[in-house]
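Re: [ENG-882] Designed sequences occasionally contain unexpected residues at chain ends

Forwarding the minimal case from QA. Structure tokens:
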């Protein structure tokens, strides 16, 4: 049994499988791409005449995020402009967030993983204080042994958070698979020695995901299918 800190639930059922699944939130369990795109367009409206399309987003999105805006605007974004763009994006995102839905297959994937005894947790680079109520409102918090969001500055490295997340759970990276939707998820998993599966259909072209060298799945059920059969 894994015991969590006071703000987390305690899983009462014994595991029958050694594999642990770390789920990403934004773009993986939460299908927020439509509101992300709308929020990006709100942010760039004073600086760009043409709306940003989904193809634009998938072609140019990168981290650090400032480089993404450099690409969208075709020039280096000044510091004051960057602060304004980032502020405008987050204001619009929070206003639209109540329209975001869980991704297709999210509930089924979590339930099927639980039925075969996979332990599960959630790690996101979305601010922790904002993340917890969103997961609770979605009604899926009971599936996770631990839920962690960003507690440091925006843009912090996910690998550092992933390593700490697994240390708190007392789970080995070699027994872990990260399910995410970005090359950052694959890079974080590789850095600490965990496996990774990326889900297609989000903010990156499939060939970009495939270039990471990890398995690319067509959906959340497909992502964990090999572990369901083990």
């Amino acid at each position: 049994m894994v015991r969590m800190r006071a703000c987390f639930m305690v899983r009462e059922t014994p595991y029958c499988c050694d594999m642990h699944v770390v789920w990403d939130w934004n773009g993986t369990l939460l299908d927020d791409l439509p509101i992300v795109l709308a929020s990006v367009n709100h942010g760039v409206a004073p600086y760009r005449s043409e709306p940003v399309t989904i193809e634009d987003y998938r072609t140019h999105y990168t981290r650090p995020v400032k480089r993404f805006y450099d690409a969208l605007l075709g020039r280096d974004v000044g510091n004051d402009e960057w602060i304004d763009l980032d502020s405008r994006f987050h204001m619009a995102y929070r206003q639209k967030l109540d329209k975001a839905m869980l991704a297709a297959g999210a509930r089924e994937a979590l339930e099927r993983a639980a039925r075969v005894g996979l332990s599960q947790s959630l790690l996101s680079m979305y601010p922790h204080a904002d993340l917890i109520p969103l997961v609770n409102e979605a009604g899926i918090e009971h599936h996770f042994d631990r839920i962690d969001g960003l507690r440091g500055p925006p843009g912090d490295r996910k690998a550092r958070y992933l390593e700490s997340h697994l240390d708190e759970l007392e789970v080995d990276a070699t027994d872990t698979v990260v399910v995410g939707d970005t090359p950052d998820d694959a890079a974080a998993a590789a850095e600490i020695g965990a496996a990774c599966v990326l889900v297609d259909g989000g903010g990156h072209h499939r060939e970009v995901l495939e270039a990471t060298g990890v398995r690319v799945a067509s959906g959340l059920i497909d992502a964990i299918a090999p572990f369901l059969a083990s």
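QA comment: On inspection the terminal residues look reasonable. The first strand starts at residue 20 and ends at 23. Proposing we downgrade this to a documentation issue.
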